Amino acid sequence: MKAAILYGREQVVVEDIPELPLAAGEVRVRIEAALTCGTDLKVYRRGYHARMLTPPCVFGHELAGVISEVHPETAGWTVGDRVVAANSAPCGTCDWCRAGQEQLCSDLLFLNGAYAESIVIPRRVVQKNLCHVEPGTSFRSAAMTEPLACVVQGINDLRLVKGESVLVLGSGPIGLMAVALAKNAGCAVALAGRGGGRLSLGRRLGAEVTMDMAGREDIEAGVREIAPDTRFDVVFEAVGKPSAWEAATRLVRRGGRVNFFGGCPSGTTVQLDTTLIHYSGLTLLASFHHTPASIRRALALIESGVIRGDDFVDGEAPLSALPELFSEMAGGNRAVKTLIHPRR
Ligand SMILES: [Zn+2]
Ligand SMILES: [Zn+2]
Question: 101 is in which domain, residue-wise?
């Protein structure tokens, strides 16, 4: 089968590799849609991922498709089933799993290899994070289940109340999904980000105000200039820069909540005003990853039409074009998500 192999920093080659045999509990999925993601771009730039990927290796982690083979000792699945698989599965037995914090499982099993014609889904993912996709749901929408589940987790942790004002910092796919979910929760949403196309998508997804931060280094000053009188009950940070984390604490109202959702480069730190945090009674939290429950909530949001793949997928490419696509992404192309067709 054809698969994209990551060899190292900015080195990806599409090759023919042998299909792995199935073990008990496993299924093979013929991939119908794989989506590009900022995490894959980070992996491409860096050439590895400390917790997930050691090259040479297959990569890509947002996928949906059809089961093409079932091991005789795998129960509950049939060839032809339309499915989406998450990119990980928790162990179910560690302290964190038992406490219901499966996203922090001490033995998360990661699954990569979406940029390929097919993928073997390991037993644990089959058991915990493989889901049926309804016939009416497109594969491109279903493939958004995993990133959406992370945002579902982040929005859920914030306990949004209908009518609250929410500021989303960052207009990448994650920030845009946060806009849609906050709107769906009945909140008044403002979006501060970059890119005309992304900001107009933000408006379509429910942002009442969009703020173009292009050319502005100081996020706080930019937001205050454009929306001087707005008090934000909640700030959802989806930029992943220390300066954005800091700005989030200064933009939320007294008694408000901040979710530091965007992962910053490792080793970075932030400076927080202790007086501000303490006397303003701020609630600061950081959400990471997803749980089997948030995966299912995300898929339900997709199947009910709250989140639609067509809104987020603004480019398509065959698997053979993946190396050029990633080099363009590394050069700053502003696509939200590109759909990879494995067999074109
Ligand atoms: Zn992703
Ligand atoms: Zn665990």
Answer: 2-144+307-341
